[in-house]
Amino acid sequence: MTAKIIDGKAFAARVRAEVAGHVARLKADHGITPGLAVVLVGEDPASEVYVRSKGKSTVEAGMNSYEHKLDAATSEADLLALIGKLNADPAVHGILVQLPLPKHLDSDLVINAIDPAKDVDGFHISNVGLLGTGQKSMVPCTPLGCLMMLRDHHGSLAGMDAVVVGRSNIVGKPMAQLLLGDSCTVTIAHSRTKDLGEVCRRADILVAAVGRPEMIPGDWVKPGATVIDVGINRIERGGKTVLVGDVDFAGAAKVAGAITPVPGGVGPMTIACLLANTLTACCRANGLPEPEGLTA
Ligand SMILES: NC(=O)C1=CN([C@@H]2O[C@H](COP(=O)(O)OP(=O)(O)OC[C@H]3O[C@@H](n4cnc5c(N)ncnc54)[C@H](OP(=O)(O)O)[C@@H]3O)[C@@H](O)[C@H]2O)C=CC1
Ligand SMILES: Nc1nc(=O)c2c([nH]1)NC[C@@H]1CN(c3ccc(C(=O)N[C@@H](CCC(=O)O)C(=O)O)cc3)C=[N+]21
């Protein structure tokens, strides 16, 4: 079998266009422009690329983008003061603090200082709790993007066996919650899982969020399964730096029913969902009905 390639880039373009349409209507009918503030502490080159591309997409969707670049040595008090200001600013509907933060900053403390209604990453403990109890929340962008692609491909996910490899707070755990919410039978695997290959081979839906280049070989994939590769790994190959996922794409594509590529899969969907979450936060803040199909 040769897998269908799930085109995250094209899907993301559709989501962004839909968001832009809603933004135009918000402006015309209500005079409101959604605003997203992105906070970057320190000078990680990969993060800077990512923050720039977020800013560009935000503006292209018709929203306001506010970038705050802080020195790597910024104190916790200064960062918390900035978050306080953004929380109080009515022009800012979404706040994203780029992770990881420099080691001297307590990321839990910082994330939990964000107004949950503006927490477009969905990392605040109250959003985590709302998601876990099936209540309306802000849903983390990467897992939300994965869910949208899965629903688009399968329609209903009910009863499917899903395996999520990785248990981070930003990808693995919220991904598992969303799959459970769609009535999958969910297994969460991690670095202490025994017989990971055996576990993966049970999956109708296999989500890899590990951060290890091409660690999942084709023979861990059940024939016909849907593979969602969240990994973003930069490696040297043939004297060039290339981007690869956590899955051996060539091997897995021979067995899977459908697979997301890297680049052009989950990454672009993450950014599209960030814009969608900012729009949703703006609608909620203004007591307006939220657009359908852009949340979980
Ligand atoms: N496309 C996108 O939009 C995004 C992509 N990413 C990418 O996704 C990947 C994962 O990110 P993130 O969740 O933040 O990473 P973390 O490093 O926070 O978590 C990695 C997880 O993988 C598990 N793991 C590590 N090694 C193994 C192994 N050998 N076998 C099984 N499990 C293992 C860890 O287990 P344990 O808990 O036991 O240590 C951990 O739960 C990265 O490549 C990152 O760049 C991240 C965010 C967004
Ligand atoms: N608070 C916070 N929220 C995040 O959502 C967050 C974060 N911090 N820190 C870093 C990770 C990583 N992440 C990516 C998003 C998009 C691409 C993306 O668009 N990737 C393109 C390729 C881009 C390239 O070429 O480098 C693709 O896969 O096609 C990648 C990675 C979000 N993260």
UniProtKB/TrEMBL annotation:
The molecular function GO annotations come to:
methenyltetrahydrofolate cyclohydrolase activity; methylenetetrahydrofolate dehydrogenase (NADP+) activity
| EC number assigned by the record | 1.5.1.5, 3.5.4.9
What are the Tetrahydrofolate dehydrogenase/cyclohydrolase catalytic domain coordinates in residue numbering?
6-121
Q: Which keywords fit this entry according to its UniProt record?
A: Amino-acid biosynthesis, Histidine biosynthesis, Hydrolase, Methionine biosynthesis, Multifunctional enzyme, NADP, One-carbon metabolism, Oxidoreductase, Purine biosynthesis
Which InterPro entries is this protein grouped with? Answer: Aminoacid_DH-like_N_sf, NAD(P)-bd_dom_sf, THF_DH/CycHdrlase, THF_DH/CycHdrlase_cat_dom, THF_DH/CycHdrlase_CS, THF_DH/CycHdrlase_NAD-bd_dom
Residue ranges constituting the Tetrahydrofolate dehydrogenase/cyclohydrolase NAD(P)-binding domain according to the UniProt record: 140-284
Q: Which positions does UniProt annotate for NADP(+) binding? A: G166, R167, S168, I232
The annotated pathway is: One-carbon metabolism; tetrahydrofolate interconversion
Report the catalytic activity: (6R)-5,10-methenyltetrahydrofolate + H2O = (6R)-10-formyltetrahydrofolate + H(+); (6R)-5,10-methylene-5,6,7,8-tetrahydrofolate + NADP(+) = (6R)-5,10-methenyltetrahydrofolate + NADPH
Q: PROSITE patterns annotated for this entry?
A: THF_DHG_CYH_1, THF_DHG_CYH_2
| Highest taxon listed in the record's lineage | Bacteria
Describe its assembly.
Homodimer.
Instruction: Give the record's family classification.
Output: Belongs to the tetrahydrofolate dehydrogenase/cyclohydrolase family.
Concerning HAMAP family, the annotation shows: THF_DHG_CYH
Q: What does this protein do?
A: Catalyzes the oxidation of 5,10-methylenetetrahydrofolate to 5,10-methenyltetrahydrofolate and then the hydrolysis of 5,10-methenyltetrahydrofolate to 10-formyltetrahydrofolate.
Recorded protein name is Bifunctional protein FolD
Q: What is the lineage of its organism?
A: Bacteria, Pseudomonadati, Pseudomonadota, Alphaproteobacteria, Rhodobacterales
Q: Which gene is the coding source of this polypeptide chain?
A: folD
